[in-house]
Sequence to fold (146 residues):
Amino acid sequence: MRNDKIPIIAASISRYEGMDVLIGKDEKLYIGKQENYHTVMSEHTAYYDNSDGSLRFVSINQKLFHILSGSDGYVLSQDEMVRRGYFSVHDYSEFAALQNGTLSDLVLTKLLMFDGIPFKPPEKSSMRRKKGAPKKSRSRGQPMER
Fold:
């Protein structure tokens, strides 16, 4: 017999239409229908009603909770977020894989933005430089001198 009430310890509206991003009591990341997420204020608890089987496992990487939430994005660039240790190239790669797999049938309602620029998968960004390649200039709008 399966448990249809999944205990939830954190939840946020996601970037996907009608979906919430959730962290279960098992500390795993899920995405599910907003109408199936319930809080019990008198008990200070929350659960996901999975009687319809709609809850999707997303990852064990809780950093993706912030990436999947429907926030307006980040004021720093993707590269700077990695440099400061907020995210890793692996986090970005995992998100890109989820967009092309587990989450591909969901309707994206809000782009993930970094410093006003939409998310770019790591292979398309400057995060993976070839060994010995010069670093990009940090000043905006100025071409790099060679």
